[in-house]
Every structure is written in C-alpha cells, then in structure tokens.
Write a structure and sequence with these properties.
Blueprint (H helix, E strand, L loop, with lengths): L1 E7 L2 E7 L1 H4 L7 H16 L2 E6 L1 H6 L1 H12 L6 E3 L15 H15 L4 E5 L6 H12 L3 E5 L2 H14 L5 E5 L2 E2 L5 E5 H5 L12 E4 L8 H9 L4 E6 L10 H13 L1 E15 L8 E14 L26 H10 L11 E4 L6 E2 L1 H15 L3 H12 L5 H9 L12 E2 L3 H9 L3 E6 L5 H7 L8 E4 H4 L6 H11 L6 E5 L2 H11 L2 E5 L18 E3 L10
Parallel strand pairs: 2-3, 5-11, 6-9, 6-10, 7-9, 10-11, 14-17, 14-19, 17-18, 19-20, 20-21
Antiparallel strand pairs: 1-2, 1-4, 7-8, 12-13, 15-16
Helix pairs in contact: 5-6, 6-7, 12-13, 12-14, 13-14
C-alpha cells in the first residue's frame, strides 16, 4: 500500500492507495492481511484520518477524487508522499515493492551490458527515489543526487538517511554546503554554480530527479563536468512528486521551452491518450493550456534552439496525432479562432473602448447647474430614460428645456483592459472602428495609445453618415474587403451597434458597459450573438 499524507494545524490526513486490495483477506495472504491491518491501526493511533481509494480510481477519476477531498476536508489540501517505511510496527524491516525489485534487476542487467546511463520512468508515488538509492547502494560508489527544488533535495536527503544509514549524507542547497559526505543531495543550480568545490571524478553514481529538465543549461553543465560510471534519470507522469501545482508546472515548462517571461496562461481541459505502444496501452492523462506570450527572454536557453513567430500553424507537428486534436478542442472552447471564419473585428469607441463615465458625470452636473436641480436628481432622472431604451442625458436636457452641454472629450479614458485586449486580438485579426465620433478620431485614439492596433477607422464625422444607418457599416465592410459573415461588430449600444450589424449578416458582441448596459431587450432582432460584461471577456470567445 502507499500513503499520501498532510500534517497541518487542521489535522493529520492520509490517503491510502489500494486499501481495498491490501486489506481484503481473500486477495492476499492471512499474514499479509494482519500485518497491513496493524500498520493501519498504528497510523490511526497516532491521530491520522485515513481516506481510501484504489489505484484504478485515482488513475481513471483523478478529478473526482480531488473534488471529494475538497468536500471531505472543506479546502484543497497539499499532500506529500510517505513510503512504506512510515508508521511501521516495531520489528518490521524495510522491503522493496515488486516493481522496484524488477527495476533494480533491469538496471543491474544494463550495467552488465556496458550501459552507463538509464531512465527510470514511473508514476508519482511509486517509489522512484527508493529504487534509485537502492541501486546506488548496490553499486557502492559515491553518490550525487540532483534535484531542481529545495523541497525535492530535502525529501531525497531524508529518504537516503532511512535507506542507507551506514553512510554519511549531506546537502548542498541554500546555506548547507556539504562537499565531503559520501552521498550529497544538491540543488541543480547550486552545484552548477560551484564546480570549483568539486572534482570531475568525485562521484561514481549520479541521480537526476525530474530529469525531463535535462536539456536545461544547468543540467548540461553538470553532466559535462562530472564523469560518473553510471547516471540514472528519474521522471514521472504529469502528477508530480514534489507537489507542484499543475498550473505552475505549465508555466515553468512554457518558460523552459520558449523563453516566455511575461504571459497569460489559462487551463482549457483535461485530456487522455491511449496508445498500444505507450505505457503498455494504459490510459495516460494531461492538461491542455492556452497561453498568450507578451515578451520573450532576450537570450536563448534550455531547450530553445530558435523562436519563430508564424502567421499560420505548422504543418509538421511534434505529435501529429495528438496536437491537432488538442488545438481543435481549444477552438471549440473559444480559446482559438476558427480558421477562415472571422477575419475582422469592428469596435465602437464610446463605452466600448473608452470609458465615458467622467464625461457623462460632467455633462449631468452642468445640466444640474443650468436647471437648478441637484446632480443626484439629474442622474436619477437620466437613469429612468436609459432604462426605457432612450438616451438619458439628451432626454433630460429636452425635458428641462436646457441646451445639451458640450461633450468634453478630455475626460475620456481607456478602460483598464482595452489596450491589452486590442494588443492580443490584433495578433490574430484585423481590427477596425465603426463609431459615431467627431473629427479627429484617429488622433484621439493615438493619444490614448491604441491607434497602432487598429487597421481601419470609419467615423461618422468623416463619412457623413451615422449609426444606426447601415451605410456606415457597408462602408467599413467595403474598405476592409470583408464579407459580413467574416466580421464581428462589438459595441455597447443595441440600437446603434447590434441591430444594424445583424441586419447585414455580421456577427455581434454586446459589451454591457456604460449606460448601454441598461438596455431592455424587447425583440429577437436586438439579441447579440454574445453578451459580455467587459472587453477581457472577448478573449474567451475569439
């Protein structure tokens, strides 16, 4: 059996894997049954709560297991692996599991055949460290155990002391700089930066934990410096032994494989792969992420030979049977554009790209001054008209018999997500503007810092026609050489943006910002294809 455990102020929690198999007399020997029952009782006596699942349940329904744990505990726990030496009854002896013994036999056979390097590929929690240390012990040469995190170094050190207590063990990480012990557990970076403290022939056996990082420069430096007689790499399935969150794993892998230093990354879905020539036909699992990279590191490193920015997807995939399917799933879920469908995105300006709340506040205060009413009264009055699908500030001025104050554009500000949203979308689509604006729209957008993301501006003052007149939309489509079905209109106004665009056959997105968000839908013709609460939400669909 295997335990995964958490010891915290909230309590001592253990997950027992294969508890059913190992505690059922009909499936194991009577002696084995009593021995395992004693082991469980000792854990319970020490104050642990135990939850049981089988390996099959964990492998096949891992997300359900996680949800159950959150339900049981009331929070998401972080567990660490405890091998079979934990909580053993007095007089028990350490013993390798069957698969570990098989691995040791295979490693011994490899060395007999003259091989000097091997990879131990086993799932998390199956005892890779125990196997590796046991093999190193059998070889009997000085050992260097390398890991890329302090936590992994510490875990290895503690297990080494249990399994091989007759030799000295030390750490080379943080403030611990042991260079003399027979077994050294060190961080990759710490060792790579301090070669002067060692000789190339200091170690006869090197263990590389999480060796899928082996292409990194630090690993390469170490492997080229030392000359062991045998090197063993350890790796696992995506479920990580060091407890690293899968999102953090994705971020780290993205950096190591692309050099991305600033980026957005979003999980999409869990997927599985079953292939007869991989893992003996067993179902394996992964998680799909979508990332938008903003900046790359200046110097290439790790696994990167070059960085290529392409307008079209590559033809020759690394995993041609898997990656296209993942990309298609991402498209279905709204993370990637559907090929050859959407070409142009047209935006309104006011209350779509630009926050006009301060301008409206200024206008209503001036109406209040002109009418002798308070700002609060004017605002409430205007709101009542907006809720009736009317332009509130205009109607209030009319009702009170005052001249509508001038629009003070100096109070306009971009919404906080406007620039980032346009930047991301402009990498995929052509960006246009269709807006009822005074002369100088391009200059104002330039001053706001977003003109560079916009390919075409169609403004009412320059064209002599205003929304909701369909002709202004037709002008935009003609100049962009875009068919209506390949264009999306994005705006805050149902009457000005959504209705006329739909009439032409354009796709529509209603951004429910500003006073336009108060519009009451009364007809099917007023329903946009997509409704969002802010610009950032567009990225979920386009």
């Amino acid at each position: 059996m295997e335990y995964f455990a958490m010891n915290s102020s909230e309590g001592r929690i253990a997950i027992e894997v294969d508890g059913n198999t190992w505690h059922e007399p009909s499936k194991i020997s009577e002696d084995k049954y009593h021995d395992d029952l004693l082991k469980q009782n000792s854990i319970v006596f020490e104050g642990w709560k135990i939850y049981r699942w089988t390996s099959r349940q964990i492998n096949k329904t891992s997300e359900r297991i996680k949800d159950e744990l959150v339900t049981f505990l009331g929070y998401s726990p972080k567990f660490s692996y405890i091998d079979d030496t934990a909580s053993m009854p007095a007089g028990a002896t350490f013993a390798l599991k069957e698969h570990q013994a098989d691995a040791l036999a295979n490693l011994s056979q490899m060395r007999a055949e003259g091989k000097t390097i091997a990879l131990l590929y086993e799932a998390t929690g199956t005892g890779k460290t125990v196997t590796a240390v046991s093999d190193a012990k059998a070889v009997g040469k000085r050992v260097l155990f390398l890991a890329h995190t302090k936590e992994l170094v510490t875990q290895a050190y503690e297990q080494l002391r249990k399994i091989w207590p007759e030799v000295s063990a030390g750490r080379y990480v943080d403030e611990s700089h042991d260079t003399e012990s027979y077994v050294i557990c060190g961080s990759v970076q710490g060792i790579a930066d301090n070669f002067q403290k060692f000789n190339p022939d200091d170690f006869g056996y090197i263990i590389l934990d999480e060796c899928h990082h082996g292409a990194a420069n630090s690993y390469k430096k170490i492997l080229s410096f030392f000359s062991p007689s045998f090197t063993l790499g350890l790796t696992a399935t995506p479920e990580r032994a060091d407890g690293e969150d899968i999102l953090e794993t994705a971020k780290r892998e993205l950096y190591e494989e692309t050099g991305a230093i600033t980026f957005d990354i979003t999980p999409i879905c869990i997927y599985s792969v079953t292939a007869p020539d991989n893992f003996d036909g067993m179902e394996t699992f992964g998680k799909l992420f979508f990332s938008d990279i903003h900046t790359f590191e200046k110097e290439l490193h790790s696994e990167i030979e070059k960085i290529a920015i392409m307008d079209e997807l590559p033809i020759n995939w690394t995993y041609p049977e898997i990656q296209p399917k993942l990309l298609e799933e991402a498209r279905k879920r709204g993370f990637c554009p559907k090929k050859d469908e959407i070409k142009w995105l047209f935006f309104d300006v006011g209350s779509t790209l630009v926050d006009e709340s301060k301008v409206y506040e200024n206008r209503m205060k001036r109406i209040a001054d002109l009418s002798g009413l308070t700002y609060e009264q004017i605002y409430k009055y205007a709101m009542s008209f907006y809720k009736e699908n009317k332009k509130g500030d205009l109607e209030v001025a009319r009702q009170l018999g005052v001249k509508l104050p001038k629009w003070e554009s100096q109070y306009e500000r971009l919404y906080t997500d406007t620039k980032d949203c346009l930047k991301k979308l402009s990498r995929i689509y052509k960006i246009g503007v269709i807006a009822n604006q005074s002369l100088g729209t391009s200059e104002r957008l330039e001053n706001l810092g977003v003109r560079k993301y916009i390919d075409l501006i169609i403004a009412s003052a320059e064209e002599g026609v205003s929304k909701p007149d369909r002709r202004i939309f037709e002008i935009a489509l003609e100049r962009s050489c875009c068919k209506p079905e390949n264009a999306v209109m994005i705006g805050d106004r149902i009457d000005n943006d959504i209705v006329p665009a739909k009439q032409l056959g354009m796709k529509t997105i209603w951004v429910k910002q500003g006073f336009g968000s108060l519009w009451n839908i009364t007809d099917e013709s007023e329903k946009a294809d997509i409704e969002i609460n802010n610009l950032s939400d567009i990225l979920k669909y386009l």
